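Milestone M4 deliverable, item 7.
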Amino acid sequence: MQRDGRASSQALSDAVGLSPSPCWRRVKRLEDEGFITRYAAIVDGKKLGLNALAHVQVSLINHDAVSIDKFHAFVETNDQVLECASITGDFDYILKVAATDPEALEHFIMSRLLRLGVVRTTTTNFILRQMKVSGALPVDT
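Output delivered:
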């Protein structure tokens, strides 16, 4: 299911050796128990003109509730931020950001991210090529 969220109950049941009804019930239980959180389509960013991807490491000025809440709200509402994770080390967060080109990424960092007033510094690493984009978690079979 992780590789094909549109797989039919019949296809799933054939793959695991169950009849469709029990297979559907198991999928429903996985949804109800929160193992399956959502279904999504994987879109080719280059076909949308998003030719610049980067990991942006972010260090906040301070770690009070107001600063963290402001940063989190920015991340949640900004479509250019594809991923955000709290990290250890010299930075507080790492973002995966999409833009049309390097200049648009610079604009995002300078005019949006740094102007929040809660970011001390950033370091940006452009993604030159992605060899694997999966999203599927390893599951023992």
